Structure formats: structure tokens, C-alpha cells
Amino acid sequence: MNAASKVVALDYRPVVLHSAGIGRYARGLVRGLSSLGEEELSGFRFVLFTLFFKRFRQELEGAFVPGSSRFELRARRIPGKMIRLAGKRGRYFLEPMLGRVDAFHYTDYLLPPFSGPELITTIHDAAFLHPESWLPERHRDWMVRWSDESARSSRLVLTVSNASRDDLIDRLSVDRDKIRVVPLAADETFFSCENPGRIEEVLRRVGVVSEYVLYVGTLEPRKNLSRLLRAFARLRQRGRREVLVLAGGRGWRNEEFDEVLSSLSLRPGVDVILPGYFPEEDLPALYQGAKLFVYPSLWEGFGLPVLEAFASGVPVITSSVSSLPEVAGDAAQLVHPEDEDALFDSMERLLEDGKERDRLSSAGKKRARTFSWKETARKTLSVYREALDL
Q1: Sheet (strand 44-52) strand order
Q2: What domains are there in the chain, each with its CATH number?
Q3: What's the CA gap between 376 and 31, in Å, rounded?
Q4: Is 292 helix (H, G, I), strand (E, B) or coil?
Q5: What gap in Å lies between CA 335 and CA 389, rounded to an integer?
Q6: What is the pLDDT of residue 83?
Q7: How many other β-carbons are positioned within 10 Å of the β-carbon of residue 380?
Q8: What is the CA radius of gyration of the chain?
Q9: Mean pLDDT on 309-327
């Protein structure tokens, strides 16, 4: 390999630390880069770096690393209590580990102080500035301060949709000329048909024994799950026998969700299944077993679960706001997230109309194929070239 190759340090921590959608983004980007031909990658080497705690050693050992000599994983274990210091004084932890690099790509919002290389950061969205986020004020102020510093320090800023780009400009005052929009994609595993026995095994493990409506994502106010619960309770009152599966870890401020669930005639573990964080290797089976996927979020920077549901062949209902119409195109039923009646009506119609579910299933698969991690990687590589004046 040419000794003059440019070295890009790519933040791989979200992959190792189970950072949900951002972890899938970082891994998908690396998979996409590794799938590009040698001619496209000519002149580049990539250092995938991560800090980790002792309890994440197994995840580190299982992390995807391309076999090509162009990719190298570098990891440093630190005590958990030092993670905040690592964020604020990143150069003291990372620079000795990385050595000389030409560009530093931070994949998770907040760029720690660094010197020397060209800085690139991915700010996925500005959801923390929306009232719907219900973030604690102290957390929101911290996110604003660090996101603003990251954007100002970076040569270029990546984001994942036009809606998110506009939000960064309007709400964070990020320089429009710095922003490059690079969409995400669904992994190929979601396009592959799971063995029926495999689907049954995954469902049995979480206690699902009947047809179900699915949501995948963090349980937090921005995801609008209280309205989904109320709409679903009305379906049950109408005699529908499907159960609702809400697959995802608990986020913050779930008091309203808990109160709504306890006030309805929905029995946790029977009518509503809450399996918590779902292993990524089991997600394709979970999606493909669903009768309907519902994602009624109040605001999204992208909405990767919608693409994953499309790729899995599941008919989708999602919101008509923020990035979701961009992602869904005409392959989903769109409803305003604050219109609970419209959400109920859309769910009821789709559950009763097999032909429309089949149409949306086919349209969703076609729509998902218009996004790919290879294209995400190709566009990101172009950003690296731009940042390095190549």
C-alpha cells in the first residue's frame, strides 16, 4: 500500500457500546466502505478506534472489522468513571492511541477536543432541541453546547436527511456550507427471508404467541408511544386479537407512558409485550414475523427502523413530519403523529385489508433498495476527500 495513504480515524465506539441506531450507522458505514473496490479506496487507510469498559470486552471481540489491510481496529480500555473525562479531554486518550491521522470522523454527535487532523462529525439530528424530546434541561443544555462546539470545530458536518440539515441550520445555526447530507440504509440481513422456525423461536423467547403489531426503538416521549397505546387499546375494544410488541430499551421520562399503560385495559406481557433491548441478530426475525409496523414518532432525524421494516417486507404506518416522508416516499401510510384518530383508523384499515398490506409490503422492499450502505460509504468517502482537499 502506498506509504502516502491518507489515514482516517473513524469513531467505532457506538458499535462496541451498544449505541442503538448510531451503532448500526457506524457499522453500516464501515461495511459499506469495505465493499468498495480498491480503485475507489485508493489512497486511504482507516483506523477504527474505540474506548471501552471491562464489561464490553465481549462486544469488542465480536465487532465487525473488515479483513482488508486498509482497516485496523485500535481499542483502549478505560475505567467507566473516566468516560466523562474522555469526552472532555479526548486528545489525551485518543492521540497517543491513534498516532498520526489526517482526518478524524466522529460518528456520534459530540467531537472531543482534538488537534492536528481535519475534523468531521456526524450530527444525526437536533431532536434534543424539540419540545417533544422532553430531555432534562441540564442534558439538553449539555447537548446544545457540545453540538455547537462540534459543528464549529469541524471542517465538514455530515447529517442524514434534508429535514435534519434544515433543523441544524435553523435551530443550531450550523453554517449551511459545511453540511453534507448522507442518508442511511438497512443492512442486507433484513432483506433475507428468515426460516419460519427461526422466527417462531425468536417470538417464543419473548412470549409472542399470536399475530402482532410492532414498534422498534427506544421507549421515550419523542416516539409518541402513549398515543400508540391508546389507539391500540381502541383496536382491542373493537375485537382485534393482535398484540402490540414494543421492542426497545427504556429511555428517559417514561412517566406518561407508564401511566397511560396502567390506565388502559391492556395487560403487560399479554396484550402489550415489552421485551426491552432486542439483540440485533434477532431483529430481522422480529420484523418479518410482524403483521404491521407502526412508527408514529413526533420527530426523527432519519428513521432507520422504517427502512428496516421495508426491507423485511412489513407494511408500515409512520408519521407525516420531519424526515419520515423523505425516507418512506409513497411506500408507507403517513399520518400526523398528533392525530390519534387517524392513527387508529390507519391501523384498523390495514389490519383488515390484506391486499393493501401486500401492496405496501412490495412497495416497501423496492423503496428500501433505493438506499444502500455502499452508497452511504461512497458519499462519505467523497466528504473525506473534500475535507482533505484531494
Answers
A1: 71-77, 44-52, 6-11, 103-106, 118-122, 156-159, 179-181
A2: 6-185+372-387 (3.40.50.2000), 188-368 (3.40.50.2000)
A3: 10
A4: strand
A5: 44
A6: 55
A7: 22
A8: 21
A9: 97
